[in-house]
Amino acid sequence: MNLSLPFDRPGPVADEVWSVAEVNAAVRGLIERELGPVWVRGEVTSFKAYASGHWYFTLQDAGAQVRCAMWRAFAQKAGAPPAEGTEVYALATPGLWEEKGEFRLTVTTLLRTDQVGLQQQQLERTKAALARDGLLDPARKRALPPFPRTLVMVTSPDGAALRDVAKVARARWPGIRLLVVGARVQGAEAPAELVAALRLVNRLDADVCIVGRGGGAREDLSAFNDEAVCRALAEVRIPTISAVGHETDVALTDLVADVRAATPSAAAQLAVPDRAEVLHRADALAARLAGGLSRRTRLLGERLARTGDRLEAAVQDALRSRRHRLERAAAQLVALSPLRVLERGYAVPRGPDGRVLRRRADFPPGAPFTLRVADGDVAARTEPS
Amino acid sequence: MTDPTPQPSLGEELRALEEIVRRLEQDETDLDTALRLFEEGVARLRRARARLGEAESAVQQVLADARGELEFRDAAL
Question: Which of A54, A63, A318, A346: CA 20 to 30 A from A158?
Fold first, then answer.
């Protein structure tokens, strides 16, 4: 069905006309895709805390203003409500309240600018102290072990960071042993618990240590800027990775640890090798090992065959020369044979005992003897006297 | 917790294996040496593969009790 709409350009067809809800949802999507959380500086006005715990207020500066909402979970962490006119930094996600078609910021963190100044000063003091003691020296950095057996994580035992590390580490190397030393990662007790946990790591048989937490806003990272925590981290005897889950902010533990990772998942990826890659390397080595040996034996076989050929030739040579010598010896033997002498007309007389008769005394009168001539024996007898 | 006989690490096994293969691929080694290298290579490969095949184990939470004794408890993720 085509509707004729009063537009002066070629109009959209009916099913291209959007509902209000659709256009609001589309605009909200656009804003949220294009703009992530941003820090906004302004004065708080028109503040109202509802019984539900949510906070509503306006942020304004000289040129503009914007409505803000802060949900109960975040408002509770923010402490006392800001007085009218307080200058703040707000960590906020721009968005659209669809029902009202109203642009607003959803605030997760609210910091008084004067307090931030103090925090910043404290941070700089701590950093200077750590630097003075050489804890930020790049020469201190240790390399991560290539094939750790045991990975120990210092974090909240029920936080997302531990789940993320376990998931990534096991996907990469199922046999990795995972230990967790629990510590609160935010709040007043967090620094002391982190220090105790890091000291406990030194009593474990582990190869690499990840300390950190999942993503949080600036004030949530304060425990990781604590001087005692940084010093305890520096005293961990195995290589350390700091992963406080904040892409933009750097915590002091990031500077003290051997390696900084943007998130706990990234830390696990740095700490644990990919088994598939190592398997591939082992397979390649296995193939080369077998190939190396068969090549050795083939070369040796060829050499053996060549040696065999030479050996056979040598034997043939030897045999030939032996045969010649034998023939020569046989010829000599023939030449020297007494039979040849007999051929020339000589005869050998032998007594009945076979003894050769050489003297007149060997022939008493009437005694029998044999004469050996060339073709046989002849019986004979001396004349009787 | 430590092995009574410390096994070479996987990194050491792979490095040694690479050296064995390199020597085996040279022509100078005599057959005796080549066979010895091959056997050593096979043993190292077997150990490396065993480490590569290790099964998944539970995540353990480490706790220190009041006397400072360590306790290992399977952690629920």
Answer: A54
